[in-house]
Design a protein that fits this description.
mainly beta; two-stranded antiparallel ribbon; two-stranded antiparallel sheet; 4 strands; about 30% strand; InlB-like_B-rpt
């Protein structure tokens, strides 16, 4: 008898907190071992755009 291992990579949801502001794409789903880039879109705070410092 031969046994074979079978597995599925875990997926994770990464959530970015705009600290009171808002932007699209605040959640990203990635598989185990992948990396996620920081959002580059400006954060909208009370009607004005602010870029991260």
């Amino acid at each position: 008898m031969t046994l074979y291992a079978h597995w599925t990579l875990n997926s994770y949801t990464v959530t970015f907190d705009p600290n009171g502001g808002s932007f699209s794409g605040s959640e990203v789903t990635v598989e185990h071992g992948q990396t996620v880039a920081e959002p580059t879109e400006p954060i909208l705070i009370q009607g004005e755009k602010r870029h991260k410092c």
